[in-house]
Amino acid sequence: MRDAEQTEERAEENTGDVLVDDFRICDDPFHRVRRERRVVLSVTPPPPQPGPVHRPAKVAQMLALAHHLQRAIDRGDVADRAAVARRLGLTRARVTQLLDLLLLAPDLQMAVLRLEAVDGAEPLAERTLRAVAHAGTWTEQRAAWNDWAVTLRGPGA
C-alpha cells in the first residue's frame, strides 16, 4: 500500500498528474515523439516541418556553365572545345552538348535560368532542352518550348 501512495505522491509532485483508480489523468498536453524504436511523450510540441527546398534547376546550372565555358573560349583562356574537355575531364561530345544549349533563343535562355528544382524534383530534363535547342529557328524553338510547357501543365491549364 505504501508503494501506491509514494507513486501517487511522485506523480503529483513531478507533473501535476493525478492517479485515480490506478489510472493516471494528465493535465499536460503531451506530444508523441518517436526516437528509434521507442515512443516518448514530450510536453513540448515537435518542431515545425521545414518548407520546401528551392534550388536552381540542373538545366539552369548547365546553361550557366555553357555560358562560362564559351566566355573562356572567347577570351582565349582556353584554345577550343577540345581543350575545355581535356581540362574538365569530359568528352568532347559532352562539351558540345553543353555548348549547344547556347543555341536557344535569348528569351528561352532567360526562362531556363529562372527554373527551380523544388525538393529535388527537376522541372525539365537536359535532353528535352537540347531537343528544343535543335528545333531550328528561334520561332520553331519557341513553339517546341510551348509544346513542352503544355505537356507539363496539362492541356486544360
Topology (SSEs and partners):
Elements: H1 2-15, E1 18-20, E2 23-25, E3 31-35, E4 38-42, E5 54-56, H2 58-75, H3 81-88, H4 92-100, H5 106-113, E6 116-118, H6 126-133, H7 138-153
Antiparallel strand pairs: 1-2, 3-4, 5-6
Helix pairs in contact: 2-4, 3-4, 6-7
Structure in words:
With 157 residues, the protein is an alpha+beta fold. The chain folds into 2 domains: 2-42, no CATH class; 54-153, no CATH class. 52% of the residues lie in helices and 14% in strands. It is built from 7 helices and 6 strands, in the order αβββββααααβαα. The protein has helices at residues 2-15, 58-75, 81-88, 92-100, 106-113, 126-133, 138-153, and strands at residues 18-20, 23-25, 31-35, 38-42, 54-56, 116-118. The strands form 3 sheets. The chain has a two-stranded antiparallel sheet with strand order 1-2. Strands 3-4 form a two-stranded antiparallel sheet. A two-stranded antiparallel ribbon has the order 5-6. A hairpin with a 2-residue loop joins strand 1 and strand 2 (23-25). The longest helix has 18 residues, at 58-75. The chain is extended.
Main attributes of the structure:
157 residues, alpha+beta, 2 domains, two-stranded antiparallel ribbon
How many domains? Answer: 2
Please tell me how large the radius of gyration is. 30 Å
Structural category: alpha+beta
Give the CA-based shape.
extended
N- to C-terminal distance: 72 Å
Task: Give a short summary of the structure.
This protein has 157 residues and is an alpha+beta fold.
